[in-house]
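Lecture notes, part 5. Sequence design as translation. It can be helpful to think of inverse folding as translation between two languages: the language of shapes and the language of residues. The source text, in structure tokens, appears below.
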């Protein structure tokens, strides 16, 4: 078979990518896509045109594992109905978590690629389709990305050392390790040159970035360095997945004082009960969390606060469930994600006594979701009347013509709603100044205000 990377009258082999799970998986898929494209492969969005199917799986929860396997089997059923065989390559968390046992359990899959071997994707794909395995020339060695759009996630770390009793991530992704600053900045520069205007830093525990690197750099310093990169582009820097212990004086000052770093703070508390947090192998108490959030609101006026709450952890009493509900309502978070506890294989909490009945978990989860929705809708409506900068993410054709879709600094992409602009001209990637005139649920209606300077993002 001809080498896919060489010039030929035969079309290069093509890959279909399917990504499940969180933003970190999106980054991993993009890395694999970039490696394959650099090696001469093509991307297709149609299963009938694919020579190989790459599914990047999630295994954070049992439900995510089930979805990953069900999606894989659905893809296998579809490819058997095609004219030719299209091998399926399963990547990411499911192979990382279950390893060799998948070979017998999923004969429909041609190859399994755990997360720590995803840089070998080109060799794996070439092997399963019978192509020659040539080395990839990455030129200057830069990290490849293929992001098309205005916002891009950048992983600054992987793995986790917390070993929360409900979480399987340390067993799936391994121990915490930080990416070097130079590598991160190189990736950021490439994304900005490609049209990205918002850099979103992510990891399992972003607040401790750098503690395992020579010289022990920290997140505050990294944010300032990334801010210097985005400044010439008028862009923004956002950081997600902080933990309460990671909110140092220096980090708080950086988020307050550096214009490009958004005062958007994402701290998943999971619970507020000291007893439940201890059972989760986490620290904190209602008073400690109140003190933290009061301090953040005092030192960073106008900041936006996102959190995560978990309902039905083993042993959670009615009183502790009430305590969490009351705490969320008291704190009036701008955005709150809510999850029902899921007993994950291999975690300490799965073997705990006093597992909460499913119907009780559902009731407690719905109660928290109702509170989260009420707070979120009110927080969104509170921005009506403001003049803000909006990054244009896309253009949708509606019954009344094209509508610009974007997001403001207080809206994390793909998470927190959008700004809808029915009139005006702009292209994807533009930063426009808008007057926010109305809201519905988590969405806002904006009207372009004019030709004002759109650099200021903390309005």
């Amino acid at each position: 078979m001809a080498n896919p990377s060489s010039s030929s009258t035969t079309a290069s082999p093509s890959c279909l990518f399917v990504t499940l799970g969180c933003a970190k998986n999106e980054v991993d898929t993009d890395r694999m896509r970039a490696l394959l494209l650099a090696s001469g492969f093509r991307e297709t969005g149609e299963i009938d045109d694919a020579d190989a199917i790459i599914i990047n799986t999630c295994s954070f929860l049992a439900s995510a594992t089930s979805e990953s396997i069900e999606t894989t089997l659905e893809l296998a059923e579809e490819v058997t109905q095609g004219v030719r065989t299209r091998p399926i390559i399963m990547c990411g968390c499911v192979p990382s978590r279950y390893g060799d046992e998948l070979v017998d359990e999923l004969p429909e899959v041609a190859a399994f690629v755990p997360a720590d071997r995803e840089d070998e994707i080109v060799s794996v794909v070439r092997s399963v389709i019978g192509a020659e395995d040539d080395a990839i020339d990455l030129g200057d060695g830069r990290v490849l990305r293929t992001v098309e759009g205005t916002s891009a996630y950048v992983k600054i770390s992987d793995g986790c050392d917390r070993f929360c009793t409900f979480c399987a991530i340390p067993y799936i992704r391994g121990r915490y390790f930080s990416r070097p600053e130079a590598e991160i900045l190189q990736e950021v520069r490439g994304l900005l040159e490609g049209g990205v205007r918002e850099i979103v830093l992510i990891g399992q525990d972003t607040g401790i970035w750098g503690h395992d690197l020579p010289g022990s750099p920290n997140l505050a310093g990294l944010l300032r360095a990334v801010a210097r990169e985005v400044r010439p582009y008028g862009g923004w820097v956002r950081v997600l997945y902080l933990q309460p212990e990671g909110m140092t004086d220096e980090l708080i000052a950086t988020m307050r004082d550096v214009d490009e770093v958004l005062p958007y703070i994402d701290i998943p508390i999971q619970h507020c009960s000291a007893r439940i947090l201890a059972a989760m192998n986490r620290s904190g108490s209602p008073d400690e969390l109140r003190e933290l959030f009061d301090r953040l609101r005092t030192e960073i006026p106008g900041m936006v606060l996102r959190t995560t709450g978990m309902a039905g952890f083993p042993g959670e009493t009615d009183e502790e469930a009430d305590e969490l509900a009351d705490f969320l309502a008291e704190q009036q978070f701008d955005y709150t994600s809510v999850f029902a506890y899921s007993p994950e294989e291999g975690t300490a909490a799965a073997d705990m006594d006093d597992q909460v009945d499913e119907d009780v978990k559902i009731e407690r989860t719905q109660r928290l979701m109702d509170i989260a929705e009420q707070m979120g809708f009110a927080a969104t409506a509170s921005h009506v009347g403001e003049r803000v900068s909006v990054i244009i993410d896309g253009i949708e054709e509606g019954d009344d013509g094209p509508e610009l879709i974007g997001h403001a600094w207080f809206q994390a992409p793909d998470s927190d709603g959008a700004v809808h602009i029915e009139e005006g001209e702009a292209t994807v990637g533009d930063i426009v100044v808008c007057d926010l005139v109305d809201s519905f649920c988590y969405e806002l209606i904006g009207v372009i205000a004019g030709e004002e300077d759109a650099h200021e993002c903390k309005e």
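The translated text above is only one of many valid answers, since several sequences can fold into similar shapes. The CA atoms of residues 359 and 423 lie 47 Å apart.
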